[in-house]
């Protein structure tokens, strides 16, 4: 393989802001590439320290991304970054450097990949493990179109715990399209990588002389004389068996792919040589690239999990700008530990989100009953069904947006059999900076369309604890507790010992309903309305579905009922209530909400106190 | 391994109906087992020829199931049959022989596994690829409970194309629980098995002397002298590489499992020895068992696909009792070929349901643009997204109940990016004999909760063609065409050149609405009502969602609007319409519908013409 770089280089000094990218990349010397990579890392650290975002994964893929753009021709070749959160360098290299400071801000660059942002992003990526399938679709289209271009998927080893990655590999391996899967192995998914595949990949890493060893074996095989007495069968059989075994070595080769690796993911020369080898195959290839997450920024290298997805921080120390002591996730995690210490039936399950969901406490204190199943939400639910069939009470904590992965499993493995399982839905509602791929606005439509589901939506830490208790001990089918990202912003402290609803009856003929985080704003809206002479009664749902018979009775007493709901409208609880009661006016979300702060999103959706008051005033 | 059977046997003659099962099984000699297996096969053929059902897969697993029940102790050991449709022998052997003739009939035995039917069915299985996850959950609970029992999953190679199987393997492989995965390899899923994994498994099959060859190699390795000059590195390195390669051979071992196999799945002695070996490991094991689908019934052996899931047939000839020439599936399949011949952008995609969805015509005539992706609905959707990003028009044909697998992919990979993809939803609505795991009553709630989806629900072959055309050429986002299982039962022929709605205005103040297959009954109901003096107008929706502005205008004119809908109620179109209009009375399905004929189900749900008329008469 020719790994020489005969390029003359471009004019110096190298300065990111003066380069014509990606074109100039191909003209650079290796030394110039190294300078560029340093500048990119500085830019990444600076921007993420200001805006928050994904740091470790991006620092780990700087050289890899530079090498990809030197070897392939985007946008004719399609480069797909799985999950998309490690594509910051790709953005910088494809004409988005000048906008990079707007990362994750309203109107700015997305933290993920979006075709609407650049022709260099072939598909949307935000959720894990889709890149193999997307790239295979693209490569299959290229083939029929007679194109000689490549579809290149860059996939982390974490994404390889997700079943859809495997479905894609299984489907693509036998094809003859120009598909290159770059497997970026850093032995981390979001929490520490889990499962048999991760372990397997880590063994490949140390197989340093793999390619040459294989050659050596092949050659030795032809020379093995008859030595000793074969245990069974003839030596020829043994030799054949050996040959078969040796010549089909990695899982990827077993599935029909060519295999190139291992490649040092921080050595551009080696990366280029690996990618050129992959290109030359002109059929599906897996390239195994080993990288270090957080590379080049000491705090992130030391604690890549902590710098996976982060808020703004101070560069010198790595300390976060704002320290959040508590969050719904942490309160849930701690409460679950307390409950599980008293009840051996409780198991905790996460799909690669141990820290995100607050289950780190459980994993530490009750490791025997803690399961991190990998980025495998479907399996997680069915696994819970198995546990529950043995009398256990599994608690699956998952982000709302990722729960979408297991609609069928919730129906097939929990609902039909009326299985008692607790699903704790974190990041329910608007999540802010991550935008439309990550907002949790579909869990209510999804879960309310499934029989045998009871849903709680607490709006404070105190209620969260009550609801978790109810889900564990009052319910005997699917019990869901959903709560928003971040911390408790309730300004009113009025915990009552109920998980049904809180009703404030002032004998008005107008009722305002909501649940969850919107309650604070609704209370203020009621104050504003009261100040302008419009007295309203208030109903806050806690057990939001199925709708309580007493709630229905209350609703009947009113002329007008305004139901504000932080959920997608079609399938929402307010829509369901409106179908039953003529006086209910549902006011939910009717579109994808792009990246912006939660406050900005609320303003856009008409969910500020002032807007709510205005809406009500305008309709009575 | 001790493979001797020293059992004295039980009193003869062996007669299925006199045996105390499963207890007697363990007392039988191998000869007696063979007699039993013959009797079981006769019973299977007789019952399926009468009742319809799954034949090939059950004929293939008779000996395997007998061996499992001789080696394991159900119900203490938990035996989980993936998909459940190959568990007929298991049912016969676990106290359900006397009810076996009721298979798939209303009130009779289910065609799948159900804990409510027997303690020997640990979890519900009906959808593919869940058994590994369920069994791992069960085994994990056993471990904490201090039980020494086993969780045994019986999984076909077809199910191994589904990502959740892999997620389960990946998670379980590193554990230390008593989990045994029996991989039943018959090189068929429902259509011919597809993908790299299937090919890989078929190579294992011919590795007949695998275990001994491995031993031979291990022993030979220790004796290899220095032969010739090693190509690179020292011979020690080569030997180490060889040893690593040889000692970690199958994909399952790579993922952390022990591996036992290959085992002849029709030889009880060999099966027992393999299962005993697996038991002795006391940690996760994969046992590879090779079987012949349709074994013992010539027509099925010859054409296992044709006898996968079948209607009643004549035993002597294997000919079906009723020959259905056309069905919605076939009409769709032929029409798509005609369209695709004119339009090179059209691709057809199926998830292992080539015949079921009518895509066999496409696969034959346009193989380059036909993709059977395996039992991998998630991948199928994301793959379609990739194709569409290149300007292609993918058409994914899938059963309603299996579409549930790809809710997240529809949102993430199609809806957010407003990607034009056509999803043809077969088996929409009640499917009958397969019961609650397979009824297609959630696709409407699921799809209507996703932005950028347009849904068509034709009620005749003619409309199906019009709708397919509209989905391909009038829509530019997600276009869904949904149609029921079986054939066109419309008794009225009144095809109009519209895909919007058909409105029959008789100047009544009562409007009856429906869509799809219920239209025939609704027309009859209107006649009954007219006969009793109640004149009703009729609105049949074709493009059922989003709801047309003109439809809304029509609805406003009526006092009462009765909307009969063959969908689960929560999330239905009628519920959505009722949320907007006070006069709309939604009449949809509010529970899981168990196995029975479609006609029986309609009667249970109040969807016969007489019942509809009665409902309307009772409410005006």
Structural write-up:
The structure is a homodimer of 620-residue chains. Chain A has 24 helices and 19 strands. Chain A has 620 residues and is of the alpha/beta class. A seven-stranded mixed β-sheet of chain A has the order 9-8-10-11-13-12-17, with helices on both faces. Chain A has a five-stranded parallel β-sheet with strand order 2-3-4-6-5, with helices on both faces. The first copy, chain A, has three domains: 16-207 and 250-310, Rossmann fold; 328-482, Thiamin diphosphate (ThDP)-binding fold, Pyr/PP domains (Rossmann fold, 3-Layer(aba) Sandwich); 501-619, Rossmann fold (3-Layer(aba) Sandwich). Residues 206-213 and 224-237 of chain A have low confidence and may be disordered.
Features:
homodimer; Rossmann fold; 3 domains; 24 helices
Write the layout of secondary structure elements.
2 copies of one chain form a homodimer.
Chain A: H1 30-51, E1 53-54, H2 56-60, H3 62-71, E2 78-81, H4 88-96, H5 131-145, E3 151-156, H6 163-172, E4 179-185, H7 196-205, H8 210-221, H9 235-247, H10 251-254, E5 258-264, H11 268-281, E6 285-290, H12 298-302, E7 309-310, H13 328-342, E8 346-350, H14 360-365, E9 370-372, H15 377-389, E10 393-399, H16 400-403, H17 407-415, E11 421-426, H18 443-448, E12 453-456, H19 461-473, E13 478-482, E14 501-504, E15 510-515, H20 519-531, E16 537-541, E17 543-545, H21 549-556, E18 560-568, H22 573-580, E19 584-589, H23 598-605, H24 609-619
Parallel strand pairs in A: 2-3, 3-4, 4-6, 5-6, 8-9, 8-10, 10-11, 11-13, 12-13, 15-16, 15-18, 18-19
Antiparallel strand pairs in A: 1-7, 12-17, 14-16
Helix pairs in contact in A: 3-11, 5-6, 8-9, 13-19, 15-17, 20-24
